[in-house]
Write a structure and sequence with these properties.
Elements (H helix, E strand, L loop, with lengths): L3 H10 L3 H9 L3 H5 L1 E7 L2 E6 L4 H9 L8 E8 L16 E3 L2 E6 L22 H17 L5 E5 L4 E6 L2 H4 L3 H11 L31 H17 L6 H8 L5 H12 L7 H14 L5 H10 L5 H5 L5 E2 L14 E2 L15 H4 L3 H5 L3 H38 L1
Antiparallel strand pairs: 1-2, 1-3, 3-4, 3-8, 5-7, 6-7, 6-9
Helix pairs in contact: 2-4, 2-16, 5-8, 8-12, 10-11
């Protein structure tokens, strides 16, 4: 539980409220006034709050001790300012716009985490599943859908969020959001999955070329599968672990061949080389999806579809505080915060400040915070540049006409 004094000090000294305003207004001050904010304090939950600007938002967060929220969330843009909803006729107050959002939680990987971590707990090995989620999802958003404005944020607890702010996606209906989310979601529905949880990809979804074994998405997933499961969790040296892998192979002959390869793995052997041999064995049989099903079921992003599909779904704001951990919900760089070369990528203990450290002037935490604010500032600046470019192109188009 984070203390009220620490929260107030943090909001006053560190919250980049003006950058949050610049982001959520998208160059239109009126647009910001119609945005919903929600606040949580103890057992009280207050929705449909709205503000004129970033200064007014910060004033609400710090105005008096009893009202300082433990966390605050962002909702959609309505037809009228949410705080004025009771002053208009029924049916006038309706949601009209919001970013397309993704929510990836480590607890949704419980069925395949063989490192000993469960629920909200994580370690350096299984946390890489979150980074795989970032790398794969960001590729899909940019290279397949062509979206440009993506803000990735550590949730402060057990997951990672993404806000996609392109104008074309903000205006999507719930049906449009569902179409994007369903394309990105490869897993069986819970009714088709005996565990009742996400656990196996639906092989019917693997026919799309974006997910073939030659695709960029599969290459990214293969990299993480070897790093996390073959090397990190060493699943080929433990029968309780590799049984999960074997369960995806429904051909009894191939399963026996793979089992023999695993049994032949000596203590000094390189497990990744054995995995390469397994891939060769499975690929001998044409038109099977065993390798795809194994790799993607273990590491492909497990999205919370309800968060993505709903226009009026709330999501924690960047730079709010997670009440359980005290971590700041900091932005991530989808290119620099994933494993690359000697870098293991973003890990909360190493690169995320806690509110207590910040208000007590811990220099290392302050530097972490500054670097994360810079990522956010760059994101906001890029938004402004794109908006200016769009206006210029629109002006040129009108002149040509």
């Amino acid at each position: 539980m984070v203390g009220t004094n620490d929260l107030r000090s943090y909001y006053q000294k560190f919250l980049p409220s003006e950058q949050i305003y610049s982001w959520l207004s998208y160059g239109d001050p009126v647009y910001f006034t119609k945005r919903e904010f929600a606040f949580t304090r103890d057992e009280f939950f207050s929705r449909y709050q709205s503000f004129k600007n970033g200064s007014e938002l910060k004033e609400r967060l710090t105005r008096n001790e009893r009202d300082i929220p433990e966390r605050f969330e962002i909702g959609c843009v309505y037809s009228v300012p949410p705080s004025q909803q009771h002053s208009v006729s029924p049916g006038v107050f309706v949601p009209i716009s919001k970013e397309f959002v993704l929510d990836i939680d480590i607890s949704d990987y419980n069925d395949i985490r063989m490192c000993g971590c469960k629920e909200s707990n994580y370690c350096r090995v299984c946390w890489k599943l979150m980074l795989c989620g970032v790398e794969v999802s960001d590729y899909i958003l940019t290279s397949i859908f062509g979206f440009k404005n993506r803000l990735w944020v550590f949730s402060g607890g057990r997951g990672i969020h993404c806000w996609v702010g392109d104008e074309s996606v903000r205006s999507l209906t719930n049906e449009g959001r569902s179409a994007v989310a369903e394309f990105m979601h490869l897993y069986q529905s819970s009714k088709d999955n005996n565990s009742g949880r996400q656990g196996k990809v639906d092989t019917n979804n693997l026919s799309h070329p974006s997910f073939s074994t030659d695709s960029k998405i599969f290459q990214i997933c293969q990299k993480y599968f070897v790093d996390v499961f073959i090397d990190g969790m060493d699943i080929l040296r433990d029968s309780d672990k590799y049984e999960k892998l074997l369960s995806f192979i429904t051909d009894s002959t191939l399963k026996k061949q793979v089992h023999n390869l695993i049994d032949g793995l000596d203590e000094d052997d390189d497990a990744s080389e054995t995995w390469s041999e397994i891939v060769k064995v499975l690929n001998v049989r044409k038109n099977n999806t065993f390798v795809q099903a194994i790799v993607l079921s273990f590491v492909y992003p497990r999205l919370d579809l309800n968060v993505s599909k709903g226009l009026n779904h709330l999501l924690k704001s960047p730079f709010c505080i997670h009440p359980r951990t005290g971590y700041v919900c900091v932005p991530l760089d989808p290119k620099k915060d994933v494993p690359k070369g000697d870098s293991q990528g973003f890990y909360p203990e190493d690169q995320c400040p806690k509110v207590g450290e910040l208000v007590n002037n811990n220099q290392e935490a302050t530097k972490m915070m500054e670097s994360r604010v810079e990522i956010f500032k760059k994101f906001v600046l890029d938004l402004k540049k794109q908006k200016s470019q769009e206006k210029l192109e629109e002006s040129d188009s009108m002149l040509q006409f």
